[in-house]
């Protein structure tokens, strides 16, 4: 890596941590720490939700899946808008009315403390394992680039995340996500431009798209109902709907994002957009 590469890498990581710590300052009570004082506007809620869902694994795996199997996997997300509408109509106002800090606190009021404890433990185990994979994916890439041991790279990334997460709470995480997602979208747009410009002179974007379609890589919608087919319109609408409903409606990593909205309206807009 050149000196400029090091400056960009270190500067980016330091900016994320510093920005998160700075925006998370003033979180002095439980509501401020866990729910950002219920002060987030809907654009911050929306981008934080998207950044939470789109982990490094998403950006590392989906291009390869699209290359090898086409765009069939996008049907998995067709049930997402329906799930968001249901959550906005039912879950968001219920959580807001009960003024809960977590989705599992609602379960204690609805059932008992044992149910809350069970679901909390399951969430912590699941999210702990998921966070490990989320850290490992970029650490693996960086370890190859930097020539470091992947274990130390994972630990270094984990320390940086822990710093702004523990010092600023949900507010720090949400604002850091806001900045991260803007950078992600900008770099994706730049990568698209560079890819198009790197095509041979005699091959344009439309030509490349037609070739991908001829090779079966543009198969984004399959109307055929087949229980043995993982990706089709119906599996996306039905299975995707219930999966996204459970994830965005009960997983605290997402519930905590929209519970931090300034109002029910901001929480709903954050989910919908």
From TrEMBL:
The chain crosses the membrane at residues 6-22, 34-54, 74-96, 117-139, 178-196. Pfam families: SSF. It is found in: Cell membrane. The keyword Transport applies. GO terms for cellular component: plasma membrane. Its main location: membrane. It is a multi-pass membrane protein. Keywords: Cell membrane, Ion transport, Membrane, Sodium, Sodium transport, Transmembrane, Transmembrane helix, Transport. One of its GO terms (molecular function) is symporter activity. One of its GO terms (biological process) is sodium ion transport. Gene3D superfamilies: Sodium/glucose cotransporter. InterPro entries: Na/Glc_symporter_sf, Na/solute_symporter, Sodium:Solute_Symporter_SSF. The keyword Transmembrane applies. Belongs to the sodium:solute symporter (SSF) (TC 2.A.21) family. PANTHER family: LD47995P-RELATED, SODIUM-COUPLED MONOCARBOXYLATE TRANSPORTER. This is Sodium:solute symporter. It comes from Eiseniibacteriota bacterium. The lineage of its organism: Bacteria, Candidatus Eiseniibacteriota.
């Amino acid at each position: 890596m050149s000196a400029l590469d090091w400056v960009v890498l270190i500067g980016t990581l330091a900016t994320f941590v510093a920005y998160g710590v700075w925006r998370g300052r003033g979180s002095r009570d439980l509501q401020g720490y866990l729910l950002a004082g219920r002060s987030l506007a809907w654009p911050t809620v929306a981008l934080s939700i998207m950044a939470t869902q789109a982990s490094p694994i998403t950006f590392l795996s989906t291009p390869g899946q699209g290359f090898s199997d086409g765009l069939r996997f996008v049907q998995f997300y067709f049930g997402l808008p329906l799930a968001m509408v249901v959550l906005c109509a039912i879950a968001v106002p219920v959580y807001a009315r009960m003024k809960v800090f977590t989705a599992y606190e609602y379960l204690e009021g609805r059932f008992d403390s044992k149910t809350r404890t069970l679901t909390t433990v399951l969430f912590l185990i699941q999210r702990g394992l998921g966070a490990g994979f989320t850290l490992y994916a970029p650490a693996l890439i960086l370890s190859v680039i930097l020539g470091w041991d992947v274990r130390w790279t994972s630990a270094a990334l984990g320390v940086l995340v822990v710093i702004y997460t523990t010092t600023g709470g949900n507010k720090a995480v949400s604002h850091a996500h806001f900045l991260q997602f803007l950078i992600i979208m900008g770099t994706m747009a730049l990568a698209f431009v560079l890819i198009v410009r790197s095509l041979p002179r005699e091959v344009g974007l439309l030509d490349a798209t037609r070739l991908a379609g001829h090779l079966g890589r543009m198969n984004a919608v399959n109307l055929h109902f087949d229980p043995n087919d993982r990706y089709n319109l119906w599996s996306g609408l039905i299975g995707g709907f219930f999966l996204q409903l459970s994830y965005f409606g009960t997983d605290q990593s997402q519930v905590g994002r929209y519970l931090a909205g300034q109002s029910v309206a901001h929480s709903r807009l954050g989910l919908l957009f």
